[in-house]
Amino acid sequence: MSEVNKVDLAGLFKSRQKATEAAQELNREYAIHQGTKGEATESSWIDLLQEYLPNRYAIERAMVVDSNGEASQQIDIVIFDRQYTPFVINFGGIVYIPAESVYAVFEVKQDISKDHVEYTSEKVQSVRRLLRTSAMITDHTGQARQKQLFEIPAGILTLSSSWTPGLGDSFEEAIQNSWTTEHGKIHLGCVLSEGGFRVVKESEKLTIEKSDREASLMYFLMSLFKTLQPLGTVPAVDMNEYLKWIE
Q1: Domain residue limits, the chain
Q2: What own/partner pairs with CB < 8 Å and gap ≥ 24 does 30-39 have?
Q3: What is 10-136+149-236's CATH number?
Q4: Catalytic residues
Q5: Which of 56, 74, 100, 146 is at 20 to 30 A from 231, Cα to Cα?
Q6: Which candidate, 164, 224, 181, places its Cα nearest to that of 199?
Q7: What does the CA dihedral 195, 200, 205, 207 come to, rounded to 10 degrees?
Q8: What element of type H or E holds 119?
């Protein structure tokens, strides 16, 4: 009987973590201009998510728009539907994505801090406040149904932390404070040099689960996919609400 080959998954995960962290450190050290540094860091995270998420998910730096003509702030990372999105407009270098197609949004910063958490929460609110339609569709059984809207998950991605310890009490207080606003909740994130995290709510109690620093990247990626899985597909866009702008 031939031997069963085994793969050192822990080693693979740690190696990927080190490579990602080194690339981000290099970007921070040599990208002098702040705008260039920010764009390079965002692109790095986008490339990473495109590598690991299934093809049904598209990832872009974008603005989110609704059928009332309202728009979000510019969002560093928008994870949206690739299969059923009827239109995504790229005009003047800015991507516009319909609100119904959004699965999750993330803000990218060099470090996590109270100000950056509050800024992320503000950005998130600009997306969640938009109107999302949900048209009736016929499922595989022939039954007409309407997809219930889900709360769009949101998070923050950084290289390091401005706090000591990096994911200590001050960090937890800032994340929990984001849950005091109706649309500003931060659900999960990654601080590469400190750990990944996700917020768990049970019986009205918030708990912030955190990984070791060596597992921050893979913990975040797996937590993200675990968050996306139960959402299923995005709601079907009610095209009549967008057609009114043409008619």
Answers
A1: 10-136+149-236
A2: 37/110, 38/108
A3: 3.40.91
A4: 76, 107, 109
A5: 74
A6: 224
A7: -10
A8: helix 114-128
